[in-house]
Amino acid sequence: MFIGGGTPTSLSPENARKLLSAIRTSLPLANDYELTLEGRVHDLVPEKMEVWLAEGVNRISLGVQSFDTRVRRQVGRLDDQDTVLEKLRGLMAYNQCAVIIDLMYGLPDQTLDVWKRDVELLVESGVDGADLYQLDVFEKSDLALSIQRGNLSPAATTKEQTAMFAFGKKYLDTLGYKRLSFCHWARNNRERRLYNTMARTGIQLFPFGCGAGGHVDGLSTMLHRALPMYERMVSAGQKPLMFLQQESPYARIADRIQAQMNQCRLDIAGLGQEYPKLAALAWLGRLWEDYGLWQDNGWVYQLTEAGQFWQVNMTQTLLECVEYLLSGKMALWMTKLPNRDETP
Question: Under CATH, which number does the domain 2-198 receive?
Fold first, then answer.
């Protein structure tokens, strides 16, 4: 069970209790269930934390982004470095849940030295796990506009982000953190990351709440994203579906590729044996090996450090290639692919 897609920790203690009580009463949770609450450090106050833990939350994921006070304040984070560390210690003192944080590299004014200190503080904090995310500055986003207007320093370059990723990976690997995905590390066995891992394997996902999406028995759906419409339909006893449609016939193949790439590997030969048309992916396998993005170990392709940095882009390219090979529909970018002997 994953409660996210916003900032659910902002719920009042009373409303959080109602929600969590309904989950425990209505859903068949297993003995070893994982119930994640996603939120922000600013909401870590005793009156809230005690409700979450008493009502069965056993994993809390927090968007720290950076410990550095200046970097945090520039991207709208309220608490300074000392307050963040103090609040994390307060949550961990209960010793009742896995504590996970997100760190982001490439933020404005987050130099390599600042990033190194972020990763060191992650370790010193003692949290159970962490995601190391690459900053993407989306066109027309508030961050992009602030940078364009000169209100913020530019985000890190790709070269700078590459060095940040390399440091974070090496530092956590050296200290014995367990790699659970291309961007997630666990300090101990308390952190399992079940939802994030299983969601990429094609398991059935049941959506609850305004704007939630999922897929069940070959059907994908999203519930209404506009709260007034969602409330009206629920009040009228109707299912608040915004759409309900048949999944793509390639959905399970896509799940398989995403699950493997999430674990920094891909069995291209196995895909080709099961789906003969996908044998053509061997060309892409050789090309990316030439580029140093992965290596063939005799069974599967394993992503190199560079490949792990570009994992999201590689996965998207693979999915588009699969759709083309199986359906014959070519995306516009595929008309511009280089020949094997050309430099892209």
Answer: 3.20.20.70
